[in-house]
Amino acid sequence: MKVHNFNAGPSVLPNEVLYKASKALIDFEGSGMSILEIGHRTELFMNVLDEARSLVKELMQLEDDFEVLYLHGGASTQFMQVPMNLLENGETAAYVDTGVWSYKAMKEAKSFGYVDAVASSRESNYNHIPKQFIIPPQAKFLHITTNNTIYGTQWQKMPVTDLPLVADMSSDILSRQLDFNKFALIYAGVQKNMGAAGTTMVAVRKSALGKVTRKIPTILDYRVHIENGSMYNTPPVFAIYISMLTLRWLKEQGGAAAMERLNEKKAGMLYSEIDNNPLFRGTVAKEDRSRMNVCFIMDKPELEEEFLKFCKKEDIVGIKGHRSVGGFRASLYNALPYESVEVMVEAMKYFSLKKA
Amino acid sequence: MKVHNFNAGPSVLPNEVLYKASKALIDFEGSGMSILEIGHRTELFMNVLDEARSLVKELMQLEDDFEVLYLHGGASTQFMQVPMNLLENGETAAYVDTGVWSYKAMKEAKSFGYVDAVASSRESNYNHIPKQFIIPPQAKFLHITTNNTIYGTQWQKMPVTDLPLVADMSSDILSRQLDFNKFALIYAGVQKNMGAAGTTMVAVRKSALGKVTRKIPTILDYRVHIENGSMYNTPPVFAIYISMLTLRWLKEQGGAAAMERLNEKKAGMLYSEIDNNPLFRGTVAKEDRSRMNVCFIMDKPELEEEFLKFCKKEDIVGIKGHRSVGGFRASLYNALPYESVEVMVEAMKYFSLKKA
């Protein structure tokens, strides 16, 4: 029995990935060893790592200047690692503040240089993506968070700038078509759209590195990881294996273009119900609505607990909203089947009729 | 079919752990979700994390001053994180250099203060543990690497000092009885004796923290992880789950005391064969021999390739020595069955007879 898993991350994965991984835990590729027991410098694992890195490059259609790394530490590590590697003391970086995660990224950058918060929707509890802002031309890069998990907003059009663009894509990577080559550095904790918790993918232009003079701890220097083929230290073997399997699945489905079609269809159906069902209401500006995290509340908040319980009975899990927004959040990542959204919409319709 | 897995890490795990994990990958505790799909702030995962942290505390018999953390990043991250948190600019830390890993730890510490290498066996290719050295009384801590995977040496008696002791125990944690309370901070990549690659255990005395004035990036500040119950950011869920299962197994076996008996028996049998078989020879000082990594060479190096091939036919894997030592290295971590060492010794005996 599988539930309808709307978790915000870690989140639903394709069944094929789970079955394959479950077998690999007992015996990996006929080696007589579990995937957890093989040496990380053996051909067995090098093939996994190489395939994962190649699949990222292929699926994102990245130019040759890009290197793809699988690092330890989550996006929260990138918050400090990015400015440590890209921002010289005394220089300025521009950040657009669209939620808790971009705010945290900004905070960490302040240890390495000046931070210019060029725009923020903090005052309105991050219910929209700022549209009008001036980017200081002397800034070293512009940092954005392409999708804001907690609030359910998403950049629909990337900002136009001559500055190197840096993006945290943890919650919408490979969920839609994008010209990834417009960026200088992209990072993503893989546990939403391209794997399970335990590793972070960094795609970085080699030409963007080596421009700061500070002494960078070896393990935090992107160049060290590039030189070592993303194998400077023992990598998180299993997390990379799961990401590789998830990317294989993603490719079989038709890549980012197919994911975009599916995700538009899923989000469209759910937003349509929210807009048409008198009990529910969306929480963010319509033009900035995320296709990954659909946030909504009830006009009668006293019904929310009851609706949650009703959903639980229908095997719908993970839809409780973040405490800072309240209400509900349904996350519709790549691996969430269309059918789960149908069940969700049916539940909303049925609950609404019951209450009419 | 299981092979005899002498890998240096990632390495062999108990079968019970692998079977349990394989099932949890499909359905975790009847939740209808994989262990990879559950939210990290749900009770389901909090129970896993709490149990893992408690088991570490119990099995290491740590005093209340200790906090146990499961962090991202591997021991190589601790090389810089330890001095960043414990060493003030201008202060001195003492290090004993017993191999590549302690050397790397020393190198990273130099970014944060002065490093006094109080002793080193580098000149003799790290074939022993230095015994005579003077520890500067003004040093802030003394750092040692309790077991040296590449060379096969191990501290049999801990250094006696009034300084806070810091230890990298990545390759022998919980493999023997030790008074862990003699230390101020212990770190260990879990992939050898207490889990699979993907997380690092840090046991740190709260009283040792908060004494440096530098600005520490949030994600690298031990105090932040303590305040957040080792959940500051999305943790490496699966790696922590595997560690919890491995610790459960370890407790069922009888804890560190039982592991010590088993590991002494395994290592004793193998070293005895090395000392008695005319074809083989140990590479390190007898009194410093590691019970975790047994390094040896052949008197006739031209036979080594043939012996390796012979072992492969006997399903013995992972015994090729590190390139800086050559010959062979058999790693006998906690989960390696006694029977695997018997098979190895039989292979050595048989090969020797064949060549006599």
UniProtKB/TrEMBL annotation, chains A, B:
Cofactor: pyridoxal 5'-phosphate
InterPro entries for this protein: Aminotrans_V_dom, Pser_aminoTfrase, PyrdxlP-dep_Trfase, PyrdxlP-dep_Trfase_major, PyrdxlP-dep_Trfase_small
Binding-site positions, L-glutamate: 41
Catalytic activity reported: O-phospho-L-serine + 2-oxoglutarate = 3-phosphooxypyruvate + L-glutamate; 4-(phosphooxy)-L-threonine + 2-oxoglutarate = (R)-3-hydroxy-2-oxo-4-phosphooxybutanoate + L-glutamate
Quaternary structure (record): Homodimer.
Residues recorded as bearing N6-(pyridoxal phosphate)lysine in the entry: 192
Function: Catalyzes the reversible conversion of 3-phosphohydroxypyruvate to phosphoserine and of 3-hydroxy-2-oxo-4-phosphonooxybutanoate to phosphohydroxythreonine.
Cellular compartment(s): Cytoplasm
Subcellular location, principal: cytoplasm
Cofactor, how bound (note): Binds 1 pyridoxal phosphate per subunit.
Name used for this protein in its record: Phosphoserine aminotransferase
Entries under Pfam families matching the protein: Aminotran_5 (PF00266)
GO molecular function: O-phospho-L-serine:2-oxoglutarate aminotransferase activity; pyridoxal phosphate binding
GO biological process terms, semicolon-separated: L-serine biosynthetic process; pyridoxine biosynthetic process
HAMAP family: SerC_aminotrans_5
Chain positions recorded as pyridoxal 5'-phosphate binding sites: 75-76, 101, 149, 168, 191, 233-234
Residues in Aminotransferase class V domain copies: 4-342
